[in-house]
Design a protein that fits this description.
By secondary structure, this protein is mostly helical. Helices cover about 75% and strands about 0% of the residues. The longest helix is centred in the last third of the chain and has 33 residues, at about 335-370. The radius of gyration is 20 Å and the shape is globular. InterPro entries: MFS, MFS_trans_sf, MFS_Transporters.
Length: about 400
């Protein structure tokens, strides 16, 4: 999911531009597909270069940290210099990272590729979200929420298929994505700029994350839902394929990537289906599904049943999308417009740290406890955090009062 950017400098269109919205949504899908494409290959990298699960999760965490820093630094840059220059620069950076992936022959090069990819994805995230809002103020925010999740899922699936059935398993998927981005980069020249450049670009690069006082109480009530959903996402993107292969006993990248495919794609469907629900209801549904989904997933691990494990993953995917959406919609309307971008930055700091730090802890734990015991503990923590958020939402007596200066949330 992506943070909305301020659109105070955006030229109003007389009517929604569906073609432009479609272009930006497909580009967002491509970027996030590239971000998840290495996941089905991790097992091959481990076998070829002989590194531990701890290093595997460190590679994933390096991507997340780079993305977070880039997002904090460049989040409002496109409001000053325009959407197209930022998007064009990110496309070049992403193609560069795919080239490093293509030529990588060691763990160090793999980590460098992930860092470059994190920077490119972080830079483009808010620019694309804002561009979609510029293109269609009604459908744009919905597409900005769904496209990243769908991209992560479809990227893992396509990579799994190519790695399993196509030649050059460590190279072809990156060449395919690079060509797709080159084509989309050429098409960017046909897209109309929606922002009038204005001064302040350098000043906008100062990271700013802030939680306004009226938001702190409501955020504390839903923060465990955010942590649990993103912690599950981080685990599935780093250790998920290894877990599926261990449970099934089948060393097949396509089978292994199904957990990475199901969680975000079902999450995207959840966001689309439940977007009209009140935030409290979305949090209740999301955390309830996370509890049930994690319980079923862990039963699948215990019974050594891939079907049960993936069923639990799909159910948890409903919770992933709903809990995140409900938590965001709980806190964002409470901040005035002048503080909303800083709040969004703080919100995403919580999200990405939950995904990366907890996944790293899981990776270290596998070295000492083994993968399956670590999965039981990790899943138990996710379920417990979800239960805390569920109880908090269930016992909430009144909806927090909206800030009078706020607009409706994107």
């Amino acid at each position: 999911m992506t943070p909305p950017s301020s659109t105070g400098t955006t030229d109003a269109y007389p009517a929604p531009r569906l073609g432009q919205l479609t272009y930006y949504a497909i580009l967002m899908i491509t970027f996030l597909a590239a971000s998840s494409a290495p996941t089905p290959l991790y097992r091959l990298y481990q076998t070829t270069w002989h590194f531990s699960a701890t290093m595997l999760t460190l590679v994933f965490a390096s991507y997340v940290f780079a993305l977070l820093v880039a997002l904090l630094v460049s989040g409002s840059l496109s409001d000053h210099i325009g959407r197209r220059p930022v998007v064009a620069g990110a496309i070049v950076g992403e193609i560069l990272s795919l080239g490093v992936f293509f030529w990588a022959d060691s763990l160090a090069w793999l980590m460098l590729a992930r860092i470059l990819q994190g920077i490119a994805t972080g830079v483009v995230t808010s620019a694309l979200a804002a561009a979609m809002l510029d293109s269609d103020h009604q459908r744009g925010p919905v597409m900005a929420s769904i496209a990243p999740l769908f991209g992560m899922g479809i990227g893992a699936l396509i990579a799994g298929i190519l790695v399993t059935y196509a030649p050059a398993p460590l190279h072809l998927v990156y060449a395919f994505l690079a060509v797709a981005l080159m084509v989309q980069g050429l098409l960017l020249g046909r897209i109309r700029e929606s922002v009038t450049p204005r001064p302040g670009a350098w000043a906008s690069l100062r990271p700013r994350a802030y939680i306004p006082p009226p938001v702190r109480g409501p955020l504390m009530r839903v923060v465990s839902a955010v942590i649990s959903s993103w912690a599950l996402g981080g685990f599935s993107l780093s250790l998920g394929p290894t877990l599926v292969e261990t449970v099934s006993g089948i060393h097949n990248p396509l089978i292994g990537c199904l957990i990475t495919f199901l969680l975000p794609c079902v999450g995207a469907i959840s966001v689309l289906t439940l977007r009209a629900k009140p935030p409290r209801v979305a949090v209740l549904i999301g955390t309830g599904c996370l509890i049930v989904g994690m319980s079923v997933l862990l039963l699948g691990v215990y019974w050594r049943s891939v079907a049960v494990l993936l069923s639990g993953t799909a159910f948890a995917g409903i919770g992933f999308g709903a809990a995140f959406m409900g938590a965001m919609r709980t806190v964002m309307p409470l901040a005035p417009p002048s503080e909303r971008s800083a709040l969004m930055a703080a919100f995403y700091v919580i999200c990405y740290l939950s995904a990366s730090l907890l996944a790293m802890v899981g990776g270290v734990a596998t070295q000492h406890m083994g993968l399956l015991p670590t999965t039981y503990v990790y899943g138990g923590v996710v379920a417990a955090l979800s239960l805390a958020a569920f109880i908090g939402a269930l016992t909430q007596r009144a909806t927090p009062r909206r800030c009078q200066a706020c607009d409706s949330p994107a």
